[in-house]
Amino acid sequence: MKELDLNIQETDTFEEPEMDMLKYEREAWDSGAEYITGIDEVGRGCLFGDVVAAAVILPKGLVLEGVNDSKKLSDKKRELLFDIIMKEAVAVGIGIVDVETIDRINIRQASRLAMKQAVHALTPSPDHLLVDAETVDIPLPQLSIIKGDANSQSIGAASIIAKVTRDRMCKGEWDALYPEYGIAIHKGYATKLHREQLLALGPTPLHRRSFLGKILGEQEQPTLF
């Protein structure tokens, strides 16, 4: 019996197929949609600050190299792509929901409200929505995509716009208001530094009280004014 030649040359390589970041957009275009909108939010898991959402309509067929889940990109890369997206996009909308509302209606509903605001801020109005693992309370055709920011260029673009917008709020006005908390460094997430400063100084008016129970425990902490 003839032996099979299983030798693999050193030059042989096996590469993962590239992700088609326009797969969902192409399906929507083929269905007749024109203004396909990617939607994502940032700040859902933070202890501090508003939740920010972005909605982005990109030109049909445009390919933006490097667009991906914003969490996978460096600050420098996000800032660069932010400028490119803002220049190339047909429209960009931003939605922001404050801490008081987050505590009142819960973070999921606040995130959905920010997404709805972002869509309503678009001109022209969209006719098809691609949403990162969520639904938006708007009577338009829409598709919720798990890990959408890594699988759809439109959603990835929205994640970058939302992330850079919120990071600038953290590094600017919020850090200036409460420099002791290190907001510019941790962006409001529950890092060791943030938890330590919360225990030492108590929450500020921009902390989400509904998120602080396990950190503050039963001890009543004064609000820093």
TrEMBL record:
Keyword Hydrolase (UniProt): yes
E.C. numbers: 3.1.26.4
Family annotation (PANTHER family): RIBONUCLEASE H2 SUBUNIT A (PTHR10954), RIBONUCLEASE HII (PTHR10954:SF18)
Lineage, top ranks: Bacteria, Bacillati, Bacillota, Bacilli, Bacillales
Top-rank EC class of the record's enzyme: hydrolase
Ligand binding (a divalent metal cation): 40-41, 132
Name of the gene: rnhB
Alphabetized GO MF terms: RNA-DNA hybrid ribonuclease activity
Co-factor: note: Manganese or magnesium. Binds 1 divalent metal ion per monomer in the absence of substrate. May bind a second metal ion after substrate binding.
Localization terms from the record: Cytoplasm
Family recorded in the similarity comment: Belongs to the RNase HII family.
Matches recorded under InterPro entries: RNase_HII, RNase_HII/HIII, RNase_HII/HIII_dom, RNaseH-like_sf, RNaseH_sf
Source organism per UniProt: Paenibacillus urinalis
Entry keyword annotation includes Manganese: yes
Domain of life: Bacteria
Protein name: Ribonuclease HII
Keywords noted in UniProt: Cytoplasm, Endonuclease, Hydrolase, Manganese, Metal-binding, Nuclease
Catalytic activity: Endonucleolytic cleavage to 5'-phosphomonoester
SUPFAM superfamilies attached to this UniProt entry: Ribonuclease H-like
Residue intervals of the RNase H type-2 domain: 34-223
Its biological purpose: Endonuclease that specifically degrades the RNA of RNA-DNA hybrids.
Matching Pfam families: RNase_HII
CDD domains linked: RNase_HII_bacteria_HII_like (cd07182)
Cofactor(s) needed for function: Mg(2+); Mn(2+)
